[in-house]
Design goal:
Elements: E1 3-12, H1 16-27, E2 32-35, E3 48-49, H2 53-60, H3 63-67, E4 72-74, E5 76-80, E6 86-89, E7 95-97, H4 100-113, E8 117-119, E9 123-124, E10 128-129, E11 137-143, E12 146-157, E13 170-171, E14 176-184, E15 193-197, E16 202-207, E17 213-220, H5 221-229, H6 234-243, E18 255-264, E19 268-269, E20 274-275, E21 278-280, H7 295-315, H8 320-347, H9 356-361, E22 384-387, E23 392-400, E24 403-411, E25 421-422, E26 425-426, H10 428-431, E27 438-439, H11 440-450, H12 456-468, E28 472-474
Parallel strand pairs: 1-2, 1-12, 2-8, 5-15, 12-21
Antiparallel strand pairs: 3-7, 4-7, 5-6, 9-11, 10-11, 11-12, 13-19, 14-17, 14-18, 15-16, 16-17, 20-21, 22-27, 22-28, 23-24, 25-26
Helix pairs in contact: 1-4, 1-7, 7-8, 11-12
Length: 475
């Protein structure tokens, strides 16, 4: 007989997305069980964290712990993408190169400290749900101690590309593989990260916290298969790609200490990220192009929003539909925005524009309507303004504290999705006061009176931002 475990919410996967979702849900009073198949620390690709990670660490209360962990800041970069190599300094705060094994363990222990239970190592088999409304999820497990069975009211799939819930995938880019290894040499490496557009591949490298250099080559899956069928070993292919690089050629004269390993770097997303009794997050929901270096950051951000959606669904059933809509809309907006961003960046590698690798990954940006492009206007305090005809106010689900509620929100072609709050201020009541011909100064004065807690400077900043985005246009 399998041992039975009960939980209100079962989170599949203890990586960054699963740990953040579990931490937030446990803090909101839910009984959470995390099922993670691997013991930590585990080896993991994806050690680069963009500067956008810091606000998320602040929200989690983990900034001090991460700073004390000895991870390496990424303060400089050398990029050879459009033309000759360019050296650049990152703005403050910098990004981070982390040991993903230790970073993931830190997040998981943080969730455990908040009250989430952790079952690790435990391999989840295909879950199924009992028939009838409100039926529980039943998920068999394999553990070193034997078989177990989890019964849960809600399932959060944060199992990464494995996507234990299944449900199909929609590819958002060509089939891509990443060859990656680590290199050591006497004296170590410089502080810079390196990114390069090669003829039929792109390459990235960065110094690790332990002093080694991590180097990755991203290639088309068809090219890799053809090379292997021709008898070229994985290591020979990897070394050859680095050897013909302008930035990384000297790497192959160092000592290869790990790899080369192979992993999937194809972009895809789930067509149904949330539904009755389940939600997917992190790489179980979507994968981003590695060009962005924001995969971990985005996984943590969407896990936070997902946790609020789950909390709303379970604690406010009348708002469940709005919570599902909020999460799904955010999912599709993120996927579309990042796919377009990556395509535009691939298109900038003009030296190789005719090569199939680059052509397949590039696309022409879709121009915004004329009024949306008025974001280039300067915020002239004496100019008469009106609300753009392209702007509208819609009833839209949004985050209000730790719940998702329906609010009037601003929709506009220049915005990724409808916006209900700007800088903590509900925007719809302000826009409803805009009279054609009012100047920027007049709007700021009116809004300051309507919002006693808002300073005149904040009101003026909000008005200027709306002009910049093409939402307030010349009358």
């Amino acid at each position: 007989m399998s041992e039975r475990l009960a939980a209100e919410i079962c989170v599949l996967g203890g990586g960054p997305a699963g740990a953040v979702a579990a931490w937030k849900l446990a803090r909101l009073g839910h009984a959470v069980l995390i099922v993670e198949r691997s013991p930590f620390p585990r080896p993991h690709v994806g050690a680069a964290l963009s500067p956008g990670i810091w606000p998320q660490l602040d929200l989690l209360g983990l900034t001090d712990a991460v700073c004390a962990a000895g991870f390496r800041p990424t303060a400089a970069a050398v990029i050879r993408w459009v033309g000759d190599p360019e050296a650049t300094r990152h703005p403050d705060p910098p990004g981070l190169m982390v040991d993903r094994g230790r970073f993931d363990r830190l997040l998981l222990r943080h969730a455990e400290a908040a009250g989430a239970r952790v079952l690790q190592p435990a391999s989840a088999l295909k879950p199924h749900r009992e028939a009838g409304e409100g039926g529980e999820w039943i998920m068999p497990l394999r553990t070193p101690e034997g078989g177990r069975e989890v019964r849960a009211r809600f399932l959060v799939d944060a199992s990464g590309r494995a996507a234990r819930l299944g449900g199909g995938r929609v590819r958002t880019g060509p089939l891509t593989l990443a060859l990656h290894g680590t290199w050591a040499r006497p004296g170590g490496w410089g502080e810079e990260t390196m990114t390069e557009a090669g003829e039929d591949e792109w390459l990235w490298a960065a110094p690790q916290p332990d002093g080694a250099l991590s180097a990755m080559a991203f290639v088309d899956a068809g090219r890799y298969r053809a090379a292997r069928m021709a008898g070229i070993s994985r290591e020979a292919l990897y070394r050859g790609l680095l050897a013909r690089s302008a930035l990384l050629a000297e790497t192959v004269r160092a000592r290869l200490t790990g790899g080369p390993d192979l992993c999937d770097a194809t972009c895809w997303h789930s067509p149904q990220p949330v539904g009755e009794g389940f939600l997917t997050t992190g790489e179980a929901a979507f994968t981003l192009d590695p060009l962005s270096s924001t995969g971990v950051q985005k996984a943590m951000q969407t896990a936070w929003c997902g946790a609020i959606a789950v909390h709303t669904i379970l604690s406010r059933p009348a708002h469940a539909a709005a919570a599902q809509r909020f999460y799904a809309e955010g999912h599709f907006a993120t996927v579309a925005r990042h796919a377009a961003w990556a395509a535009e960046l691939y298109a900038t590698a003009r030296r190789h524009a005719g090569r199939p690798f680059w052509h397949q990954r590039a696309a022409t940006a879709v121009p915004l309507p004329a009024e949306a492009r008025s974001e280039t206007l300067k915020a002239d305090s004496g100019r008469g303004l009106r609300l753009s005809a392209a702007a509208s106010l819609l009833d839209t689900p949004c985050i209000a504290g730790d719940l998702i509620e329906t609010r009037r929100a601003l929709a506009h072609p220049g915005l990724e999705r409808p916006v209900a709050y700007l800088d903590g201020v509900e925007i719809a009541p302000l826009l409803e006061t805009v009279l054609p011909g009012a100047t920027l100064d007049e709007l700021a004065a009116v809004w300051s009176r309507r919002l006693p807690s808002s300073s005149p400077r904040q009101a003026a900043t909000l008005a200027a931002w709306l002009v910049h985005q093409g939402i307030l246009v010349p009358a």
